[in-house]
Amino acid sequence: MPDILCLGEPMLEFNQQPPGADGRSLYLEGHGGDTSNAAVAAARSGADVGMITAIGQDAPGDSFMALWQAEGVDTTLVARDAEAPTGIYFVTHDERGHHFTFYRRGSAASRMTPATLPMEAIRRARALHVSGITLGISETSCDAAFRAMAAAREAGATVSFDTNLRLRLWPLDRARAMIHAAVAMADIAFPSLDDARALTGIDAADAIADFYLTLCPTVLLKLGEAGVLVATRAMRQRIAGFIVPAVDATGAGDVLAGAFLARHVAGEELWSAARYANAAAALSTTGYGAVAPIPNEAEIAAYLEGQR
């Protein structure tokens, strides 16, 4: 079984491209879904990683199976549901950044339950990665995520959690309660600055880190182009963002989580792994789509060597 397991919902992506001479935009088909993005990022950084999810018995589902197999992401624990679709989403871009429109109601992943979990594989993994989206897509998926985290903790695995707040999925009060309960079950938390401000009502990055450290022993607060604040209960360090020709930040936070977990499971120390992951996230913004621009281990290493 894989060292790292990522539990969550994959979604087929349609990403808006710059308009042509006629002023119309085409949409580039790709792959997304936060924990799937993290899985691909971890695999491209050399990790042994697998997905726990359900997808439709449909063309988008077939596309994901082909993607994961090409990327070396284990699909043994992927269920195919003949009665529910694989979710899709659209990404549009303007001067305010990138925006998402989702079509995921009743998706195969939202039908996951604690009873469908591969418990033995979870207990044998070295790390389990879950996100707030998995909690928000349905009550049964939320229950499954908490059961998986509890099993991983009981087995001594590292549990990592990305807040990935999506208020279209649920009210803020419920999101806050469930997400913070999940952070309290994690060894490593990956909140983004925007998520954390909404969830805590706290504005300053260091104060946000202080809040999450009361729940979780290691926090990587994602600051977007400003980099990442890495904090433990003993010390903290801000790792500045890398300056790159960014065009699309879709999935960059997921890439940071996946790349970090790859280095963490490989035994790299915290600050070095965080700098590596920060570079991976920056490089992933230099192309369109969540998956296509994710850099591999050699590309990240070469970039970091050039930053010395």
Task: Spell out the key features of this protein.
single chain, nine-stranded mixed beta sheet, 13 strands, alpha/beta, four-stranded mixed beta sheet
CATH architecture: 3-Layer(aba) Sandwich
Identify the strand order in the major beta sheet. 5-4-1-8-9-10-11-12-13
Task: State the CATH topology.
Answer: UDP-N-acetylmuramoyl-L-alanine:D-glutamate ligase
Net shape: globular
Q: Helix-strand pattern, N to C?
A: EEEHEHEEEHEHHEHEHHEEEHHH
Number of domains: 1
Compute the average pLDDT.
95
Number of helices: 11
Structural class: alpha/beta
Which range does the strand content fall in?
15-25%
What percent of residues adopt helix (DSSP H or I)? Answer: 25-40%
What is the name of the CATH class? Alpha Beta
Number of strands: 13
Low-confidence stretches: none
CATH homologous superfamily, by name? Ribokinase
Describe this structure in words.
With 308 residues, the protein is α/β, with parallel strands linked by helices. The chain has a single domain (4-10, 33-86, 107-306), classed as UDP-N-acetylmuramoyl-L-alanine:D-glutamate ligase (3-Layer(aba) Sandwich). Helices cover 38% and strands 23% of the residues. It is built from 11 helices and 13 strands. It has helices at residues 34-44, 59-71, 119-124, 132-136, 139-154, 172-183, 193-200, 205-213, 252-265, 270-283, 297-306; strands spanning 4-7, 11-16, 27-32, 49-56, 78-81, 87-94, 97-103, 127-131, 158-162, 188-190, 218-222, 227-232, 236-240. The strands form 2 sheets. It has a 9-stranded mixed beta sheet, sandwiched between helices. A 4-stranded mixed beta sheet has the order 3-2-6-7. β6 and β7 (97-103) form a beta hairpin. α1 packs across α9, α9 (252-265) packs antiparallel against α10 and α10 (270-283) packs across α11 (297-306). The radius of gyration is 18 Å and the shape is globular. The chain starts with a strand and ends with a helix. The model has no long low-confidence stretch (mean pLDDT 95).
